[in-house]
Amino acid sequence: MAKNFDLVVIGGGPGGYIAAIRAAQLGFNVACVDEWKNEKGGPAPGGTCTNVGCIPSKALLQSSENFEHAGHAFADHGINVQGLSLDLQKMLGRKNNVVKQNNDGILFLFKKNKVAFFHGRASFVKAADGGYELAVAGAAAETLVAKHVIVATGSNARELPGAPFDEQRILSNVGALAIQEVPKKLGVIGAGVIGLEMGSVWRRLGAEVTVLEALPTFLGAVDQQVAKEAHKLFTKQGLSISLGVKIGAIAANDNGVTVEYVDDKGAAQKGEFDRLIVSIGRVPNTIGLQADAVGLQLDERGFIKVDDECRTNLPNVWAVGDVVRGPMLAHKAEEEGVAVAERIAGQHGHVNFNTIPWVIYTSPEIAWVGKTEQQLKDEGVAYKAGTFPFLANGRARALGDTSGMVKFLADAKTDEILGVHMVGPMVSELISEAVVAMEFRASSEDIARICHAHPSLSEATKEAALAVEKRSLNF
């Protein structure tokens, strides 16, 4: 017998579970369907982000950074470590436990907010009774009928043609988070967020890491002054980064992976690796959704077509997150999920794409919001820039990490902040001040006039804002 709901959310990742909870808060009878399984076959909501993305990668980044600090940085603090060793299985176990805590937290939130949870894969069957009939394939088959449907099915790693993921030798983000022994030589194709973060993890733990990037510029989406500083720092740490390469044949066997490529000078090269991580982007996940059953439109790249408010071509069917246009970021999906739930309730949910922050959780971290300097130049916008190095920040000196800087870009006439770019310690936390400022259309002068705690890393933000008018006080 069919179970009826005001709203069924397909997918329990950041966009899906947040949309379900917000809709329940607004008084709707809500169900969420998610098929992720834990090691025992039980439910593991949270999507790619919680299970094989944001959360486990940050756990390994923290553990590997602790290991590197113990081996190299502690001595500067007068802490002598002898007999340092790595228990990789315990490290991976901690990562898995962090994931489980987040899975369990989401299930608790569903219960708290009276969201019905179904463990399985949902697909469209037909339009029915002023809504839609959905089939849930899982341990217990279910038929659901919903007036509204939100599709939040996320994305999958993109494979290289001729080199499918086996998660043993050729790895996506899934396999990169579960390598059972530190490889002597690790290859990474793609110098994006995943490639740099996973490359950093395994380099810290002892791997010799080579990053191969097809684009001629490093981190092309990042402000290039920041990107150049990051490239210099990563190279100094030991990451070997080759830009402008053309990948050729890839062959995997029991002993490792061979990658043939042409470097930026046109010379043929061959890389021999124990493992190869491929991080060349992600593709929308509509597998098994049965979009054709109800005429749900996809675009030429497989994304679900939506308008600016996440409406699809079908009445009362919405889509959010990685499966639609826009940046593939967990927090973007969350904001869209909230906005759609509020739109269904007749409210005016809103997502400002111009103030969505980006973060790369390497060490140093990279974070930014708004326009880059090259974008402003291309658009012919007159601007002023101000920078401040962490080298001149007292808290950074005390931490022992003075790498990087903060950079402000402001309109030359109005002084409105147009972009803020950072590379350095804990900038994933510092960027929020810039996001708030830009949401309220603040000027660089506004930040420059606000009292910041001393000593704190946030003083670098204030000093960069002061530097827009060339009146930095500590540099």
Secondary-structure blueprint:
Layout: E1 3-10, H1 14-25, E2 30-34, H2 47-52, H3 54-73, H4 88-112, E3 116-128, E4 131-138, E5 142-151, E6 155-157, E7 170-171, H5 173-176, E8 185-189, H6 193-204, E9 208-212, H7 224-237, E10 240-242, E11 246-253, E12 256-262, E13 268-273, E14 275-278, E15 282-284, E16 317-319, H8 330-344, E17 358-360, E18 365-370, H9 373-379, E19 383-389, H10 394-399, E20 405-411, E21 417-424, H11 427-439, H12 444-449, H13 459-467
Parallel strand pairs: 1-2, 1-5, 2-3, 5-16, 7-14, 8-9, 8-14, 9-10
Antiparallel strand pairs: 3-4, 4-5, 6-15, 11-12, 12-13, 17-18, 18-21, 19-20, 20-21
Low-confidence segments, given as residue ranges, are none
CATH level-4 homologous superfamily of the largest domain? FAD/NAD(P)-binding domain
Taking Cα atoms only, what radius of gyration do you get, to the nearest Å? 24 Å
Mean pLDDT: 97
CATH topology label of the largest domain: FAD/NAD(P)-binding domain
Tally of distinct domains = 3
Instruction: Tell the overall outline.
Output: globular
Largest sheet: 5 strands, mixed, barrel
Assigned CATH class of the largest domain: Alpha Beta
How many H/I helices? 13
Structural class: alpha/beta
Taken as a percent bin, the fraction of beta residues is: 25-35%
The amount of helix comes to 25-40%
N- and C-termini, Cα separation: 71 Å
* Biggest sheet, spatial arrangement of strands: 1-2-3-4-5
Annotation, overall tally of beta strands: 21
CATH A-level architecture of the largest domain:
3-Layer(bba) Sandwich
